[in-house]
Specification:
Blueprint (H helix, E strand, L loop, with lengths): L2 E5 L2 E4 L4 E8 L8 E6 L5 E7 L6 E3 L7 E6 L4 E6 L8 E7 L12 E2 L3 E6 L1
Parallel strand pairs: 2-11
Antiparallel strand pairs: 1-3, 3-8, 4-5, 4-9, 5-6, 7-8, 9-10, 9-11
């Protein structure tokens, strides 16, 4: 059974940092695109970041570009999201995502984690 398990969420003040981790189990994702989405209260789930299977290519939502960094460690089957200069509008449940290929979509994924709450206070 494939599982994506996020960790690292929490409460932080504006301007602070958090690092999210997503550990995959049940299969290896070393040849798959992976990424992060987020869903704020009352809003749809939005794309945040993507990383290619080899970690070379990345893509970010405009709202987080320059503040967030996605990375991965294929030996650990884990993807990370370093979030700096956090703003109250970054408050959301953050979901790890994986695709069944090397390609990604900004509107859907094949595998989802259960989500981790990030709350940024002003």
């Amino acid at each position: 059974q494939v599982q994506l398990v996020e960790s690292g969420g929490g409460l932080v003040q504006a301007g602070g940092s958090l690092r999210l981790s997503c550990a995959a189990s049940g299969r290896t994702f070393s040849r798959n695109a992976m990424g992060w989405f987020r869903q704020a209260p009352g809003k749809e789930r939005d794309f945040v970041a993507y990383i290619s299977w080899d970690g070379i290519a990345t893509s970010y939502a405009d709202s987080v570009q320059g503040r967030f960094t996605i990375s991965r460690d294929n030996a650990k089957n884990t993807v990370y999201l370093q979030m700096n200069s956090l703003k109250p509008e970054d408050t959301a449940v953050y979901y790890c995502a994986a695709w069944m290929s090397t390609y990604y979509r900004t509107d859907s994924a094949n595998y989802w984690g259960q989500g981790t709450q990030v709350t940024v206070s002003s």
